[in-house]
Amino acid sequence: MNALAAVSYVVSVVIIVLAFPVMLLLVLVTVPFDPTRRIPGRFLRLAGSTPTYVFPFWHVRIEGRQPATGAYVCVSNHQSFLDIFAMAREGREMKWIAKEEIFKLPFFGLYFHLSGDIPVLRGDRDSGGAALTKARWYVDRGMPVMIFPEGTRSRDGNMGSFKPGAFRLAIEAQVPILPVAVTGSAYGMPKGSPWIRPTLVLIRRLEPIDTKGMTGADVLPLMEEVRTRIAAAEAELRAERDALGWESRIGS
Fold first, then answer.
1. Sheet containing 177-183: which strands, arranged edge to edge?
2. What are phi and psi of 176, to 5 degrees?
3. Domain ranges in the chain?
4. 37: phi > 0 → left, psi -120 to 50 → alpha, else beta; which?
5. Distance between CA atoms of 19 and 23, rounded to whole angstroms?
6. Is the pLDDT of residue 194 over 70?
7. Predicted model pTM
8. What is the CA radius of gyration of the chain?
9. What are the tens digits of pLDDT across the range 18-29?
10. 177, 189, 155: which is closest to 223 by C-alpha?
11. Using one digit for the tens of pLDDT, what is the confidence trace for 72-115?
């Protein structure tokens, strides 16, 4: 598997590197009529999902539907970087709020800047506020936004507590929340490890939750309701994955 993994790494990197001039050209050409960078962003997701196709020992299954039109706030549990590659398969463009360190990565960070994704410095209140302000700008223009409300990847695959920013954004903008449950990605790219492993990633989009008529008083109840729904769906997916015989141990 090591040789196969090495080849898959090389193929992914080559595709992503070759995609950069195309990405840059798309930004330059679409600037006059695409203020939300929908087209370059969609191209980035297609390129970013490459590893989930070329790594033959990663298997991804996505259930459920996204809202076909209109803005919404998508929230998901976060098990590993593989979540990002797998969810890049989503059919509609979404702008992602991601930690600032990703935007500083050599070469790859440029992609996120060019696509219009939103950096946030974890633990910095001002940065968090600025990120949500930018997210609101997108939502007001019909662009969905993707947020991991745990704020970081899980180290053991178990879901942590949620932060309220995504839910406050949805209520203030009066747009739906789209809960998404993910399981299996923690085994494919464990946090703190440079190695990838065979895994089955199961992703389930749940029913959107309408926030029309909700107020600031509903932020925390909405957050807890969404977390409960995601936790229940993730438990179902984990049981299904285990029944299929996939590895359930994180670590070396």
1. 58-63, 199-205, 177-183, 73-76, 145-147, 95-99, 118-120
2. -70, 155
3. 58-243
4. left
5. 6
6. no
7. 0.92
8. 18
9. 899 999 999 999
10. 177
11. 999 999 988 889 999 998 889 999 999 999 899 887 889 999 99
